[in-house]
Amino acid sequence: MSSHNFVLSTSSSAYADESKGKYHTELHNAVIVGEIKAEEIEALAAAGVEGVESTATQIDVAQAREARNICQANGIKIHSVMRSAMFNHPSRVEEDIKALKHALRIASAYGASSCLCVPGRVDAPAIKPHDFRIKFDPTTCMVSEVVDGDNAPFASYIEAQNNATRCAQRYVPEVAAVAAYEGIRIGLENVWNNLWCAPELYAAFIHSFQTPWVKSYFDLGNHVKYAPTQDWLRALGKNSIVKLHFKDYLIDPNDHNSGRFVPVGLGSNDWALIRQTLDDIDYSGFVTIEFEEALSRKYTPAQNVRKFKNFFNGVDLMDGVELIQE
User: Taking residues 238-260, what's their average pLDDT?
Assistant: First the structure.
């Protein structure tokens, strides 16, 4: 791959926050970090980053409070933590629950408001993304069919899908009690785990918990291969999303069942439509960028902030971000 430099153009007026008046919702930018380090936080603050999402949960409460102090001193909010927990592997359910409960306590000490949780994972079925035709019980979320025609070849996948749903519906409420005590919302992320592969099913799954302490941590790039991102947002609807991940995916124009992750703004997402849809469903809050492939790591924090502001304002994400070939 050839090397590139990315520079910011200072000529565009879109850098100013023009979203006020255009939208009634308000979005805030964030990046993912590990252990909170003063030098990194200072640099992010200087670039205009508003918040961070930390993967560092294997620490104690005192360490988390010190990290919170570092961020507060720089005007940055630790808004969430990432703690993957599967639940559908019997040998590790107790371990998953214990780790998630600890992450909730650390999130509280950080001053965060949410904790990301992956509620299950199963092996991928031999179904192309655009071939899914899922039928399910809207009350139980149990799936009966996943494709048109003969579903016998997918019987084991259907059972694995339903088992993951049953496990999540059994164990997540147990952890939600701790979440309520700590004041932290659990954000369930459907992250390329081969589950709930249709907007209506995923929305029904999230809504089935019937508690304000369990919502969706929705990734704006993970689902476009199944259906347009705005369709997922509309299915989830008002007040069902706790936080967002900012990522892009390019669908192969010659094969809509194939594609790859690309830097945000260079993929298949219609970002202006997504921004309007977020306004329509009343989502206000943090949006955290994920560095999904090597090329995107070449964007500096300031350049990513520019992309955020373009998105927040409903304009072309690449406006004012120039790509120069060396």
Answer: 92
